[in-house]
Write a structure and sequence with these properties.
The complex is a heterotrimer of chains A (353), B (306) and C (291). Chain A has 353 residues and is mostly helical. In chain A, 75% of the residues lie in helices and 0% in strands. Chain A is built from 14 helices and no strands. The N terminus of chain A is likely disordered. Chain B is mainly alpha-helical and 306 residues long. Chain C has 291 residues and is α/β, with parallel strands linked by helices. Helices cover 33% and strands 25% of the residues of chain C. In chain C, the strands form two sheets. Chain C has an eight-stranded mixed sheet with strand order 7-8-9-3-10-11-12-13, sandwiched between helices. In chain C, strands 1, 2, 4, 5 and 6 form a five-stranded antiparallel sheet that branches. Chain C is globular and about 60 Å long. The chains are: A mainly alpha (353), B mainly alpha (306), C alpha/beta (291). At the A-B interface, helix 2, helix 7, helix 8, helix 10 and helix 12 of A face helix 6, helix 7, helix 10 and helix 12 of B.
Chain lengths: 353, 306, 291
């Protein structure tokens, strides 16, 4: 008995867990590096490019003492390295400065507006996946026939149309002419403030509070902008799904499955689809990230009080601190989504284990 | 063979099995590619749309019915009619004329962005791919960080720092565009790097930069060109987005995105003011997308439909 | 008299291309009982196409015609798709060349093997099915069937993957097994083993086998009868034991170009192709026939 115990390899942690730990370490290092890089860019945009960063931060109507204090806080007299470190330190503490427009700390503003964008983007991606994946599969299976052509046209339009213009046209048709959906904003005026803010996502909050009128109204309002984002998402997802599926359907193992007498439906949905899940995760992640971009313009068109609108308003008011804070947060979310997809892919792909 | 030789048309010359010079061979290849491209109807449509854009932009002052900036407040917000095919805007300016002149702005932006971003991306991509090692690691990190931001948002941030205006918009968009081209160039370079002819050049003692410039870059060019064409729509849409936000060409310039923005106030009743410029944007983007798809199919026929 | 397992008469397959039809199989005829038939040919001779035509797994651009293409008396070309799907996997199966590509990379081996039975609703469920899979894995001489059951294709070597493939295609005890270049992607050292496994299983169960290969030696050593294919036609049919007596110039050329230890030569003979072979007479069991 004691012989077998002695012969067992000393650290079982060695192979499996150790490998995971090493790759985890690699991922963490990667995140840290990217984080720093994001900060670098926002720093360069905020401090290096403008001729007078302090002026950019406080605005040209600020009184002299405010301006002087900003100069001091930014440490503009210090060498650039030190300025960068101070900046990084501030960011790590969650301090992005104060917004000129709202007078409040930028971080606070962002925390307030972010859920609205999140709500929109998440609904958009759900539409994109639920419709986009089956459309892509259909297009691949019925290659070059009318279903395929239709899907490709839908996709092509999604790549060629300006999202803000389509939003306007959508409002014109579905709100003004047909009255099927709500107008701008998240709620009609008289529904505002009824459901208590728990998560910031009105659909969730009103459901929790049981305020179904508010819920319906919120749904009415989010429908068109979410559908808009969803359309762009599904244009991309369906195109990528089609391409991935076509690649799989040419593989030998598909023939093996057919040799076994597997039904065509099972061949497509069990054999082929399972093989594209991994790249599909990356596709969905990329789409989600691009929805954040799309939401900027969508929020303007629909007067949606989200991060995009906050960023744009800050921009137009030359509120540098807010612009940088919002840009950074968006970059962070982008990176976070990519990271998540990376982790998911490691879980799902048997070859990566 | 005695007797009179059959007269050779230029087509025979191009398709000849025994080209007499490199130029003839290259032209022959180009002709064959053109023939294959011509068979793709959608790609031809794309080409047609782009040619239309170029012609309209070139001949703008002559083909537009009115001056784009002439105001006529008595005729403001007129619906499309025989006198004003696409109607008039809030200052009585003819929308069709403004769209025609706006095509020049669009072309200007797109061309400048490509002229700036493409060489930059090509250079960084090929250098990164060829040398590998820490140069590659560093350059790719930088590229990744730029790609970490959604394009429009990064462009917005740059414009915020630089100030609004068409030149700044161009710079901002170019800064967001080069990473994609760098990636494509690098991918191509990685494949080419191991080729025998590169090894041969190295043995001959050719310097690295020369190899990159004379051998690798020209071979990367087709993929990069396809990528650029496919990207054009994105550039146009980003530029329109910036214009919509008032950050591109400043009024009274007839930039399409800005026109949509001003038209927004009158959307419900005078829908044409905001809608027409959008259709122009759609057509141009569509044209580039179709053209790009066609070019890509040409480069890699195995990927047809992919 | 029971009908032969497979009867093929004047099988023709043509592929629709951009410039008209390209013939791949031009009037192939043979019959098969519970024996081992080898089909030998070079690339482009149409040999793989025959296998897929029998299973009716050719792409849509293919046009199949035949005077007879009968399996156990049933005309395959007249069967509705559902009936054909019933035959596949249960009565006729096919082993393919490279297990790296012919096995689904994201499904476990055990599941893939069990699927052959499951899609046809046989073999029971749960542990009963699992037991059958483990049994067939042992039958192909896999020493640790449990491990392989749970494994993914990329975790197996080429030889083991091909054994899993054989298991997958024999678990339902088919009447006809088509093996399309089953050893071409394997190391030379592993080939004999795989063939030996196939030989034993096929003999034990009385399965009809069609072995498709470009390797004349392999086929001759393994099969009872050999068909030599050239440009989509059978140019010679002969018993494997009498292969040295083949008569068609192409067959003789093939034989002559094989390097042999017993007959060392300065230069290996190369085949001189004669366009007459495309339409000329062929040889069946030593007799010249015109087809």
């Amino acid at each position: 008995m004691s012989d077998t115990l002695v012969k067992r390899p000393p650290n079982l942690i060695g192979s499996r867990l150790g490998r995971h730990a090493r790759s985890l370490g690699g991922i963490l290092a990667s995140i840290a590096f990217t984080f720093l890089g994001l900060l670098c860019i926002t720093f360069v945009i905020g401090r290096v490019i403008p001729i007078d960063p302090a002026l950019a931060i406080v605005g040209d109507r600020a009184p002299a003492h405010v301006y002087d204090r900003a100069r001091e806080e930014l440490g503009l007299n210090l060498p650039i390295w030190q300025q960068f470190f101070i900046y990084v330190g501030q960011v790590l503490r969650g301090d992005f400065g104060t917004s000129i427009l709202t007078g409040r700390p930028v971080m606070e503003d962002i925390a307030r507006v972010f859920p609205a964008t999140l709500e929109l983007a998440t609904l958009g991606i759900i539409i994109g996946v639920v419709f986009g994946v089956p459309m892509g599969v259909l297009a691949a299976v019925k290659r070059d026939r009318w279903a395929d052509q239709l899907v490709r046209v839908i996709g092509l339009v999604g790549y060629s149309v300006p999202i803000f213009w389509l939003g306007l046209v959508g409002l014109l048709i579905f709100y003004a002419r047909l009255g099927w959906v709500g107008g701008s904003g998240r709620l009609d005026f008289f529904h505002e403030g009824i459901a208590p803010t728990i998560t910031g996502v009105i659909l969730i909050d009103s459901a929790i509070a049981g305020e179904w009128d508010v819920f319906r109204n919120a749904l009415h309002h989010i429908l068109l902008p979410a559908a808009l984002l969803g359309y762009f998402s599904l244009a991309y997802i369906s195109r990528m799904t089609r391409s991935l599926m076509l690649e799989q359907l040419n593989q030998e193992y598909i023939i093996t499955a057919r040799v076994k007498g597997v039904s065509e439906r099972r061949v497509i949905w069990v054999h082929a689809l399972r093989n594209i899940l991994v790249p599909l995760i990356t596709v969905i992640a990329l789409s989600y990230a691009s929805l954040l971009e799309g939401s900027v313009l969508t929020e303007i068109v629909f007067a949606w009080p989200g991060l995009g609108r906050y960023l744009t308003n800050a921009l137009l008011a030359a509120d540098m601190a807010a612009v940088l804070g919002a840009t950074f947060v968006v970059g962070l979310v982008f990176v976070g989504v990519n990271l998540l997809s990376d982790l998911l892919y490691r879980l799902v792909d048997p070859r990566a284990k | 063979m005695s007797g009179s030789a059959p007269s050779t048309t230029w087509r025979d010359w191009l398709l000849s099995d025994r080209p007499q010079s490199a130029t003839q061979a290259r032209l022959g290849q180009a002709w064959l590619s053109w023939r294959a491209f011509r068979r793709n109807r959608l790609a031809m449509l794309g080409l047609g749309l782009i040619l239309l854009l170029l012609i309209v932009a070139a001949l703008a002052p002559w083909i537009s019915p009115y001056e784009p900036n002439v105001q006529n407040l008595r005729l403001r917000l007129q619906p499309p009619s025989a006198a004003h095919w696409l109607g008039t805007d809030e200052l009585g300016r003819d929308i069709l004329s403004r769209i025609i002149h706006g095509s020049r702005i669009t072309l200007y932006i797109v061309t400048l962005v490509v002229v700036i971003a493409a060489p930059l991306g090509l250079l960084i991509g090929t250098v990164s791919g060829y040398f590998g090692g820490w140069i590659d690691a560093v350059l790719m990190r930088v590229t990744d960080i730029f790609l970490a931001f959604p394009r429009l948002i990064l462009a917005l941030a740059f414009v915020a720092a630089l100030g609004p205006g068409i030149e700044n918009a161009v710079i901002a968009i170019a800064i967001t565009a080069w990473p994609t081209y760098a990636r494509v160039a690098r991918a191509e370079t990685l494949t080419l790097r191991r080729s025998d002819f590169i090894a041969a050049a190295r043995i001959q003692g050719t310097g690295s930069l020369r190899i990159i410039g004379r051998h690798i870059m020209p071979l990367c060019l087709p993929s990069v060109i396809v990528r650029i064409t496919l990207d054009m729509a994105g550039i146009i849409l980003t530029a329109a987005g910036l214009g919509f936000l008032g950050l591109g060409a400043q009024p009274p310039a007839p930039e399409w995105g800005a026109m949509i923005s001003t038209g927004r106030a009158y959307l419900l009743d005078q829908w044409w003011v905001a809608t027409m410029p959008g259709i122009a944007i759609c057509l141009v983007s569509l044209g580039f997308n179709l053209l790009g798809d066609g070019l890509r199919d040409l480069l890699d026929p195995k990927r047809r439909g992919g | 008299m029971t009908p032969p397992l497979l009867q093929v008469k004047n099988l023709r397959v043509a592929f629709r291309g951009e410039r008209g039809e390209v013939p791949a199989v031009r009037g192939v005829s043979f019959s098969l009982g519970r024996e081992k038939l080898g089909i030998v040919g070079e690339s482009g001779s149409g040999k793989s196409t025959i296998g897929r035509a029998i299973l009716r797994l050719l792409p849509e651009s293919a046009r199949i015609t035949a005077q007879r293409l009968a399996f156990e008396g049933q005309e395959l070309l007249e069967l509705p798709p559902q009936a054909m799907r019933n035959l596949r996997g249960q009565r006729i199966t096919m082993i393919m060349q490279d297990p790296r590509f012919s096995l689904n990379p994201v499904l476990r081996i055990g599941d893939q093997i069990a699927e052959t039975l499951r899609v046809h609703g046989v073999g029971g469920r749960g542990s009963e099915l699992r037991q059958r899979v483990l049994e067939v894995l042992s039958a192909v001489q896999i020493r640790d069937p449990e491990r392989v059951y749970r494994a993914y294709p990329h975790e197996l070597s080429g030889g083991m993957g091909q054994r899993a493939m054989i298991a997958m295609m024999l678990i339902s005890d088919p009447a006809l097994l088509i093996a399309d270049e089953p050893t071409s992607a394997l190391d030379v050292t592993v080939r004999r083993e795989i063939l030996a496994i196939m030989d034993r299983l096929v003999s034990d169960r009385g399965t009809g086998l069609i072995l498709i290969s470009h390797d004349l030696n392999l086929v001759a050593g393994f099969c009872d009868r050999v068909l030599i294919l050239y440009a989509g036609r059978v140019v010679e049919e002969i018993e494997a034991s009498r292969l040295q007596e083949c008569r068609h110039p192409y067959s003789r050329g093939l034989l002559a170009s094989l390097p042999l230890l017993e007959r060392p030569r300065e230069q290996l003979a190369t085949l001189q192709r004669d366009p007459a072979w495309l339409e000329g007479p062929v040889y069946r069991f030593g007799q010249e026939v015109r087809e």
